[in-house]
Amino acid sequence: MVDLNSDMGESFGIHSFGNDNELIPIIDTANVACGFHAGDPSTMRETVRLALAGGVTVGAHPGLPDLVGFGRREMKLDPSEAADIVRYQVGALVAFLRSEGAPLHHIKPHGSLYGLAARDADIAAAIASVAADYEVPLFGMAGTEHERAAAKYDVPFVAEFYVDLNYRADGSLVITRRPHATPIDEARERARRALEDGVATAITGEDFPMRVDSICVHSDTPNAVQIAEAVREVLSTSQR
After folding, report:
1. In whole angstroms, what is the distance from residue 49 CA to residue 223 CA?
2. In a structure prediction context, what are the per-residue pLDDT tens digits for the chain, which is 240 residues long?
3. Contact status, residue 28 vs residue 35, Cβ threshold 8 Å
4. N or C: which end of the chain has fewer CB within 10 A?
């Protein structure tokens, strides 16, 4: 069964971001920011409790150490650095999960770390090694270094599809610094085509194959709740 996930817990201090409260009743799993690209200890605790109270599973969403850039600016990392920053962040989230008696569900890298790992086998392997340590699945893009690294470390792989981001013709994501609203009908059709036809359309118009185990809607997308509701309708219809 294909599920619906969302990146959450990205508030910081007194500043609130995202549509977490409204999305919890709609989604299946939450990817919780771990403090490097967004979030803080109190936000992590609150987001974990919010998700668990809503019956939503919780995974770690580690990013690059770049609060100002929201983890969406690339950095030069060697594999040991990548493993260290991921392990550090995952460990922090696991501490909050354990305090609530809940398990870690998965690991999903954030933003530019996600894109970097899709292309760089060594960075992907560093992240997958942490997933292996915790014996949890790795979320990523099908047919990229994400999937190959998961196979190398014998961890389950969850192929992810985004309805609120654009793709290039080679299947890579177009990562923007600021989120933009996605037309609801467009998001709905993207989800339907990925699920029923196994294809996605690049920003330049080309179709390419798309395998999907989980669909992501970003909590900080301005109309995230409406997008998630539309995707939930498609999932309900396509998986009858």
Report:
1. 24
2. 999 999 999 998 888 889 999 999 999 999 999 999 999 999 999 999 999 999 999 999 999 999 989 888 989 999 999 999 999 999 999 999 999 999 999 999 999 999 999 999 999 999 999 999 999 999 999 999 999 999 999 999 999 999 999 999 998 898 777 778 899 999 999 999 999 999 999 999 999 999 999 999 999 999 999 999 999 999 998 766
3. no
4. C
Q: Cα separation of 193 and 234, whole Å? A: 10
3-state SS string for the chain: CCEEEEEECCCECCECCCCHHHHCCCCCEEEEECCCCCCCHHHHHHHHHHHHHCCCEEEEECCCCCCCCCCCCCCCCCHHHHHHHHHHHHHHHHHHHHHCCCCCCCECCCHHHHHHHHHCHHHHHHHHHHHHHHCCCEEECCCCHHHHHHHHCCCCEEEEEECCCEECCCCCEECCCCCCCCCHHHHHHHHHHHHHHCEEECCCCCEEECCCCEEECCCCCCCHHHHHHHHHHHHHHHCC
Amino acid at 89: Q
